[in-house]
């Protein structure tokens, strides 16, 4: 497999580990970018970007990053907190009055960002097209009763997070949430990152497909079993209501919409650049970065049915759990996206990493491909 791009010789072992991924005949396309103290030391890519395996992955190929989008959304909200336009501990209903319905008057932005609000899913089945109707989704969430009481744990909100936090951004800034996020994070840093992709960019977007035959680890199998056998369970509703959530990634409507939980589009470079800018203070004041990266929720996740640990809109390191470690330092933070893409930082080593792939793996938290690369990287440092 021809590896394109640049790597510093100190990190040749990382390049070799990346090349080794392609020994799996199912591997399609991927890219890896690593920055140390703000300097790019690895920026490589390989494989194919299109459905039929005819089109090579290019330097400017972008793809759906799924939940790698969530920290961009959280950082945007925290910037607004820093400017006094939002408050972490004010009721969401202060900015969005309808949200107070069904006993949600005490839920705050902090609860939304740390997955404690009890709104990872909607009970009432929605039609597939509701996915693209911002008003319909935010109205449904404003009316929804929480699945558990405040203070009784946490459950990851795979997609409702985007409407919940995005609606606050929209109300405070008076523009689409994707516009706010891009204007506040990607544009100032020159990142090739989009939430709400212009049609003119579609030809650069990698087609996403699923690997076959790999059932993943115990956590993945547990979640799959519930979603296949319990149609009204919280976990099932979180991923399948509206029913189009998991099947829309390659559709033009999905690319165009501004759904800041799961439809950011970018590349490995944009992820590494984002985390570098968090480490050096370009995106958040240190006290807000501390809020982002300190533990808010930890333990059994009511949605993912495995142990998760969250800051505000980012996932924190769990070194003792094979499916939940970034493979670097104890203070690592970031976010995986469905199927294997990931962006994260290790503040102790001043390292920022972005890894993206268009061949979705079946894992619930961290993908072993990214973990392997991170372990090799740690050895190189």
Please give a handful of descriptors for the protein shown.
single chain, about 375 residues, alpha+beta, Beta-lactamase, seven-stranded antiparallel β-sheet, 12 helices, globular
Please render the helix and strand layout as text.
Layout: E1 4-7, H1 12-21, E2 29-36, E3 39-47, E4 63-64, H2 70-82, H3 109-113, H4 134-143, H5 160-173, H6 177-189, E5 194-195, E6 209-210, H7 218-229, H8 234-240, H9 252-256, E7 264-266, H10 268-279, H11 286-293, E8 297-300, E9 307-310, E10 315-316, E11 333-336, E12 342-346, E13 351-357, E14 359-360, H12 368-380
Summary, kept brief:
Residues 18-371 form the Beta-lactamase-related domain. InterPro entries: Beta-lactam-related, Beta-lactam/transpept-like, Beta-lactamase/esterase. This protein is α+β, with helices and mostly antiparallel strands and 381 residues long.
Describe this structure in words.
Its EC number is 3.1.1.103. Residues 18-371 form the Beta-lactamase-related domain. GO terms for molecular function: hydrolase activity. InterPro entries: Beta-lactam-related (IPR001466), Beta-lactam/transpept-like (IPR012338), Beta-lactamase/esterase (IPR052907). Keywords: Hydrolase. Helix 2 runs parallel beside helix 5 (160-173). The protein has a single domain, classed as Beta-lactamase. The protein is of the alpha+beta class and 381 residues long. It contains 12 helices and 14 strands. The longest helix is centred in the middle third of the chain and has 14 residues, at 160-173. It is globular, with a radius of gyration of 19 Å. It has a 7-stranded antiparallel β-sheet, with helices on both faces. It has helices spanning 12-21, 70-82, 109-113, 134-143, 160-173, 177-189, 218-229, 234-240, 252-256, 268-279, 286-293, 368-380; strands at 4-7, 29-36, 39-47, 63-64, 194-195, 209-210, 264-266, 297-300, 307-310, 315-316, 333-336, 342-346, 351-357, 359-360.
